[in-house]
Structure formats: structure tokens, C-alpha cells
Design goal:
Number of strands: 0
Distance between the termini: 30 Å
Largest sheet: none
Radius of gyration: 16 Å
Oligomer: single chain
Length: 153
């Protein structure tokens, strides 16, 4: 009986993790659209923002305005570049990790933001612009994470 309860709890945990990551393929698809040469548009930025918000945990949602700023800066920065698929996948994963960063270490969060910035640069985004987009991701992460030292809900 105890083993089956552990199995059920483990299965629910895996299901919850996969349900939270359901939008990551959508975000990857959005970024793939930019790779295919689509121009930056307000509609695409809104779509990217919606897919980013879908990644949020219900108890740790950032403000839609902050996510909108991230999505607009990300779409504008990547437009006109042809990054490798692996870099696009990693950018989407960095966003997903940020959206689930509540309760993670500060150094782990900082590493995710740094990785995001480096991937943008590898995609051809100038360093100054990559830093600005990474700063937008960092603001989203701060809202997800809450105040330093605050207990995780």
C-alpha cells in the first residue's frame, strides 16, 4: 500500500511538471518563426508573451506588463537573425527555467540569465542589446522569485 502511494505521488509530481512545461514547445515554435525570417510584429510579441505566461506557476506569476516587455524585446532582438535551432531551444528553456525559478538558488537563477544573454549573442544579437533583453528576463525572474529570503508558497 505504501509503495503504491509513493508511486501515485511521484506520478502526480511528474504530471505537474510536464503540465507546467506544456507551453515551452509553443515558445520554441514562436522563436522558430523568427528563425524562418518572419519580421518582428506586435502580434508575434503578444503570442510570445502569452506562451511565456502559460509557463508560470499559478502561485508565482509575474506581471503581464513585465512579460510583455520581455517578449517585445526578445522578438525585436531576434528578428533578422538566423540562430541555430539548438540556441533557440536553449533560449526557450532559459525562459521556462526562469518562470519556474521560485525556490531555486540565487546563483542558479543568475546562471540562467547569463546563459540566456550568451545565447542571444551567439544568435547574432549585439552584446548591448543582448544585455538589455537579459535584463528583461531578470526582471521577470525577480517577480517570479519574489523578495530575497521570502518563503516559497
Amino acid at each position: 500500500m505504501k509503495a503504491s502511494l509513493i508511486f501515485v505521488a511521484f506520478s502526480l509530481s511528474l504530471w505537474a511538471q510536464s503540465a507546467g512545461g506544456a507551453a515551452a514547445p509553443d515558445l520554441r515554435g514562436d522563436l522558430q518563426t523568427l528563425r524562418a525570417g518572419a519580421p518582428a510584429s506586435a502580434a508575434l510579441a503578444r503570442q510570445v508573451g502569452a506562451h511565456i505566461l502559460m509557463l508560470a506557476e499559478s502561485t508565482h506569476e509575474p506581471k503581464a506588463v513585465t512579460v510583455g516587455q520581455l517578449s517585445e524585446s526578445l522578438v525585436t532582438a531576434l528578428a533578422g537573425h538566423s540562430p541555430a535551432q539548438a540556441d533557440l531551444d536553449r533560449l526557450a528553456e532559459d525562459v521556462a527555467q526562469t518562470m519556474h525559478s521560485a525556490g531555486t538558488s540565487t546563483s542558479g537563477f543568475a546562471q540562467t540569465v547569463q546563459d540566456f544573454e550568451k545565447r542571444l549573442q551567439r544568435a547574432g544579437v549585439p552584446a548591448v542589446r543582448a544585455r538589455l533583453v537579459a535584463a528583461s528576463l531578470q526582471r521577470v525572474g525577480r517577480e517570479v522569485r519574489g523578495a530575497e529570503g521570502a518563503p516559497v508558497r
